[in-house]
Amino acid sequence: MNRQIKHLSSFKAKRLALEHWLAERDGLHTLSLARSRLHARLGEMIRGHGRSPLLDVGSGLAPFSRLCAAMHLQVTRLDAQDRGAAVDLIGDVQHMHAIADGTFATVLCAQVIEHVPDPSAAVSEMARVLQTGGILILSAPHLSLLHEVPDDYWRFTRYGLAQLLRNAGLEVVSIAPTAGVFGFLGHLASLSWLLTVGCLPGWRRVAWKINTAILVRTLGLLDRKFGATEMLPCDHVAVARKRGD
Q1: pLDDT 10s digits, 215-242
Q2: What's the predicted TM-score (pTM) here?
Q3: 158 CB contacts (<8 Å, ≥6 apart)?
Q4: What CATH architecture is 2-242?
């Protein structure tokens, strides 16, 4: 067991280093096919529904900062960890006591609720801080490897997400899958490639370019045709509206 924990800790450290390297190049979405498809769908929803002020919950390395800046959105970033300039508030999405009711027109929450013990409480809190008529843009995994151990608790079907949103008093606008079985397998392949060959001295940039060309773009063609996205989605992106009283 100790060996397994040590291995997972080493994997997590390497992955964090890789993600920081990609973030510096505005390339977090190029990590894998699954990440690329998810990023594209979330970007589409932000462009279609994003209004100021916007709360980015679990903002992490802020992969949508450039898009929000281009849209002139006023963004507040909340995360459970202090990540420097990328975070404005440190807090728990399940208990956002520092934020008053009805503060935000838009809440963005990407790949966060699988990491909290009580996702119902988290979605209810996001609904609370939304203005009447405000929009929640939420994504969560359906197929995913174990990650962010030990804080990895849940996977979600579209029906589970819809129920969470309705229970919080939100009206479901849309729920769409992103990537399919090739996206899932490709994510594992991309991580394996980038965390082995990509960790060799002088090879990170070369490995990244090969990954983008083969495991993101080329594999994406197979996934679009044979990925069974509806039955075997990697992730779902949901949009929900806060109804008036």
Answers
A1: 999 999 999 999 999 999 999 999 999 9
A2: 0.92
A3: 142, 175, 177, 233, 236, 238
A4: 3-Layer(aba) Sandwich (3.40)
